[in-house]
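Colleagues,

Please find the record for the three-part complex below.
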Amino acid sequence: MADATFTHTTPRRIWPADAAGPRPRKRFSQRNIIIYSLLAVLALYYLLPLYVMMVTSLKGMPEIALGNIFAPPTEITFEPWVKAWSTVCTGLNCDGLSRGFWNSVKITVPSVFFSIAIASVNGYALSLWRFKGANVFFTILIIGAFIPYQVMIYPMVILLREIGIYGDLSGLVLVHTIFGMPILTLLFRNYFSSVPEELFKAARVDGAGFWAIYFRIMLPMALPILVVAVILQTTAIWNDFLFGVIFSRPTNYPMTVQLNNIVNSVQGVKEYNVNMAATLLSALVPLTIYLISGKLFVRGIAAGAVKG
Amino acid sequence: MQKVCPMLLGLAMAAGPFHAAQAADLEVTHWWTAGAEAAAIRVIAEAFEKTGHNWIDGAIAGAGGVARPLISSRITGGDPMGATQFTHSNAMNELIEAGYIRDVTALADAGGWREVIFPPSLLDSCTSESKLYCVPSNIHSQQWLWLNTSVFLDNGLAVPTNWPEFVAAAPKLRELGIVPLAQGRQAWQQQVTFNVLMVGLGGPETYLRVYRDHDAEFAAGPEVAEVFAAAVHARDMMVGSNVQEWNLAARMVTDGAAAGQIMGDWVQGEFEQAGKVIGTDIACLPGLGVHEYITATGDAFFFPVSSDAGTVEAQDALANVLLSPEVQVEFNRAKGALPVRSDVDISGVSPCMKRGLEILSSGNVIESVNTLVSPDTLGRVTDLVVEFFSDTSFTPEEAQEEFAKIIATAD
Amino acid sequence: MAHTVRPSRLLKNLNAKIAAVPMMLTAVVVFFGFTLWTVIFSFTNSRMLPRSEWVGFEQYERLWSTRRWLVSIENLAIYGFLMLVLSLVLGFLLAALLDQRIRFEDGFRTIFLYPYAVSFIVTGLVWQWLLDPEYGLQKAVRSLGFTSFTLDPLYDPNLVIYGVLIAGLWHGSGLVMCLMLAGLRGIDEDVWKASRVDGIPAWKTYLFIVIPMMRPVLVTTLVLVTAGIIKLYDLIIAQTGGGPGIASEVPAKFVFDAMFVSQNLAQGFAASTMMLVAVIFVIIPWAYLEFGGKKNG
């Protein structure tokens, strides 16, 4: 994770070793002490929930009943994890979160692909091939980002029913593609708007058409923003609850819905440790993505979202 | 010979009473996810699988409020499940009117359901234009106050025999650090509590004039004012009960953290799972020990219309399984409910259920609020009650005024 | 970056138009058409299924006399305002701190950003547990000897929305930080040099020079945060369920419950139309300025 391994050039300044901010400064100045202690206190707020989830998921129930949530487990057990993954019940289905995991994969992969494919073309057309009325559609789309989903759910159910894909995976993919469009299109539009005009003009002069420029020039250039889009969409779709509940049947339920089901089907006592393990399991995929590619995400945001 | 035998076997299977020509998958949605409920649904699932079909369990956690919308939107969305649990209510009527639900009159005639199902009102409530649209599975009544007897006896208190005695004992219980009334904070549970107070303390006349006749003037009058006054007692008594789920509230009672709970008779399953004996460890007061009237509605299964022959056959099989005497006994014992057949052995039921049966036979039966008013009206009443029970600054007079307004436009 | 629209033939940009068909369909059919459909049916008495029996403004009259709706609106206003302000302030503070050429920047950034990766369901559940008086922070602090310490916002009708806010901020401020940091890094080095030469204190430079220069980032951030606020639903479901009582109800939940639990579609449509009206008042002027009025990005 050393900074030196990144030699990226898109942002105007080299990132982040040459970070900005007021300077100069000394190592152990009073100012630094304030900065680090502020950061530490804030980090505590962000880390606390993760820490509590971790330690609780490794404790047995008796220890949870007696002890302090912040105390590390006296006796580490992985049983809650095993149970959450493979045996915890909702009704008669006692196969834990494992089924939901694969459902989420089946939902997320095609949804991410289609929503990004369409939105990137939108952004490209909107920024470089402006045609009359394009802005009207785009404005509607952006306003659409603010419309509460509830407004559109019912007609959506009717539409999917008429097409005949209500409850199918393909229906859910369509829904994610549609509702992911505004923000993604905005991202790509902003990004492509910042592409040097000369590049585009030169390609036109060479006789390259709409698709040729898109695939040969723009798409390869769009890598930073593609990364952002993939990360944003993967987490958004993986974490979606509302659409998963409404547009799929129980056998296709994504992990979030199953998690909510598991946590809310209390049989006997509330098994906090299993619930915490289930919670962590359902968050594992997006967390991993952020941990691995967080830096790319930040950089992509810098390259794309910043330009208005 | 070797070729003939499998064919004969196949013939024999096809001819058998339950064995379908081909096994079909039947997805059954329900919201029975608490411990005893899950055990009960397993009884049905296992009996159903013996007919050669596959049970695809579609459990939806979070009680009817969460499950009902999902179920109805899937039916209207053209992706119906094979069968679904639902409570008797007006909620289903629009689906039936729109032709989404299968008419099972023929099955009922063939199985002679009308002769065995008791009380007959169970069938009436899902009959529309003299056609039957559901299969009742069990009877539940809501109007019960459950008391942990040892909480009282161990502390030198008499076990209350009615609501006023319970209210009188509340301050003593508080001194001992015991929450008098356990209450799950989910909206539907608070609605149950309120309407149990309405029936138990107001009596059936009050209840019916409000919910059946929608008499707004009466709803603003002194009889209903008494109900709201009792609701204030209940509100004070439930302070300290911060659980959400009803079975966790039941757990407070069995643990002795709380003295009593107002809840439907399905809560018995949870008491029994905690090792309590209904009737001795846990006392029950139907109608809060004042007006001993109970509702006799329960759960039923509905079958969305299907064009697939295999599914239809599996639906038939499930309908017959639900009403078979063995399943009725075993399922309802696990669930803590009363069977819908009058001709089955009920010797295993708890003393409280026997009381319930006596009340049923004596005719002290009232219609459920679910069938008296629309889900919309009930939703508004629920919102009001939920706010009232959580906000101590909400005076009973104010609440009653709001209540009367709702009743004035009820449907 | 202007690509001036030359006087065009109909077939000009044909490929672009074809490529934009999915977008046009989405904009016109879904965002416009569906919304219009919902608005129209809010003037009917549809219950479980849509019916075209007109009742005028009846649904709206009833809506505005419903206590739960008023509580929902109030909650969204409180949550929305505080979330917007606090997440911007907190996000900017975090970004500014990270921009001080500190050590372990990657580590800190990951810590601040990771909550954004988890779902609202997870966020709600975790903070419900942490704020549970018999189990979470309150118990932990009391066990240290502070026996009168009270932290149970989720059980206090007056405080519950702030309990939700704590969770919402935890979840969303990392993304704001990320955007702000990107904005700060986009500020030219010379700006800092110049302000140092002039002896302007750092905080003044931030406030009066840097922040105004970050307008595009601020706009993007505002869009993302606002869009999230209006849709507040999952978090409430997982953390409070709308309770205690109706103290943490929000409009999106009101709509959902009206449509699917009370099976009064028209009432839900009326409520969602009101949400839409509020959104339009805020958004239209902004969207026009940002995207409609000028021809370049």
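Chain A touches chain B through 28 residues (CB under 8 Å).

Comments are welcome before we finalize the supplementary table.
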